[in-house]
From TrEMBL:
This is Sensor histidine kinase. The keyword Oxidoreductase does not apply. The lineage of its organism: Bacteria, Pseudomonadati, Bacteroidota, Cytophagia, Cytophagales. The chain crosses the membrane at residues 9-29, 41-62, 74-93, 121-145. InterPro entries: Bact_2-comp_sensor_kinase, Sig_transdc_His_kin_internal. It comes from Lacihabitans lacunae.
């Protein structure tokens, strides 16, 4: 980034150095003419070029960003034409009011015949219009190109942030606490020689395989995400004596759209975290249903651990909200309801699929 910025500065400096030198190119080959030339013929080209220089960067750094980029095109055009009028006045003041009158006072020779009116019109209006328009046009095109590059870089940075956020979320999906508890439960089932021990290992294997190997792609089929959630729910249910009040319903009308992976697991994990205490019968309900051009995920659980509040969920909830902002900007609604007895999450995703 710094290297490209430095190169752009050098290009600007060299380009304007050439433009400022061009009116004096003849003096390089005939230096004696520089001494005998009236000072006005030396300063005026520099002054006019300096006006174009100021116009170029005023448009590049102020007018275009303030008006053109914000859709105020009419006001932008009006200001550009006002600038052209100022350039006409500036050109007339320097050449016809200062230079020619000064020469007339110094030069006592008889007056020369006035130039052709067509040439005067060209010199006063056509030529200034051309050079002024080129200055404005080039600066405007340069601004648009820079803005396009900036937006492209912004999108790339967002993509990098999205990837970083996804990687961070992958680490948070299954916490070490969950893994340790699951492994302890499996060890307990093995010691009891329970037939659920092998099933627990298989479920855990499926969960880890999905997270590690199958979510590298941008999107996954909803059926794979549902299977992942079922494995997680069934694994948690194995350690509960009465799991009849734990339900996961998926509507048949939802189809199999592509979605971003691991969007719901955080809420499922929370439901088990706060909805099970080992003493009372849990009430946990998950549902995925269709909405217009999208899907709806619902999670509702009875809070069985009043002392185990949701205060520690601030970071996790902020992460999932940030991830939704990156993946579905302006295309999701997340509503979280909490009471003394129940905790509920409603998430609508608008997939915009044809």
């Amino acid at each position: 980034m710094k290297k490209r910025s430095s190169r752009a500065i050098w290009i600007h400096l060299i380009s304007w150095a050439i433009i400022f030198i061009l009116p004096y190119i003849n003096y390089i080959f005939e230096p004696e003419r520089f001494i005998s030339t009236n000072w006005g013929f030396i300063l005026i080209p520099f002054s006019l070029t300096f006006f174009l220089f100021v116009t170029f960067y005023f448009n590049l750094l102020f007018l275009a960003p303030k008006f053109l980029s914000k859709g105020r095109n009419f006001l932008f055009v009006v200001l550009i034409f006002l600038g052209l009028g100022v350039f006409f006045a500036y050109n007339h003041l320097l050449i016809y009011e200062l230079l020619l009158k000064t020469i007339a006072k110094i030069d006592q020779a008889p007056k020369r015949p006035e130039p052709d009116k067509n040439w005067q019109f060209f010199a006063r209006f056509i030529l200034p219009s051309i050079v002024y328009s080129l200055s404005v046009l080039v600066s405007t095109i340069l601004y648009l190109l820079n803005e396009r590059r900036r937006q492209s870089e912004s999108r790339q940075l967002m993509e990098l942030e999205k990837v970083a956020t996804e990687l961070s979320m992958l680490k948070l999906q299954i916490s070490p606490h969950f893994l340790f508890n699951t492994l302890n439960n499996i060890r307990w089932l093995v010691r009891k020689k329970s037939e659920n021990a092998e099933e627990s290992i298989l479920k855990l294997s499926e969960i880890l395989r999905y997270i590690i190997y199958e979510v590298d792609d941008t999107k996954v089929a909803l059926s794979r995400e549902v299977e992942h959630l079922r494995n997680y729910i069934e694994l948690q249910t194995l350690r509960i004596s009465d799991g009849t009040h734990i339900r996961f319903e998926v509507s048949d009308a939802i189809g199999n759209p592509l979605i971003e992976p691991l969007l719901f697991i955080h809420f499922v994990e929370n439901a088990f975290k706060y909805g099970i205490d080992g003493k009372n019968v849990p009430e946990i309900h998950f549902e995925i249903s269709p909405i217009e051009k999208g899907i709806k995920f619902t999670s509702k659980n009875k809070i069985l651990n009043p002392k185990n509040t949701l205060e520690n969920e601030g970071v996790g909830l902020a992460n999932i909200k940030r991830r939704l902002e990156l993946l579905y900007p302006g295309r999701y609604e997340l509503e979280i309801k909490s009471s003394e007895d129940y905790f509920e999450v409603l998430l609508n995703l608008h997939l915009n699929e044809n």
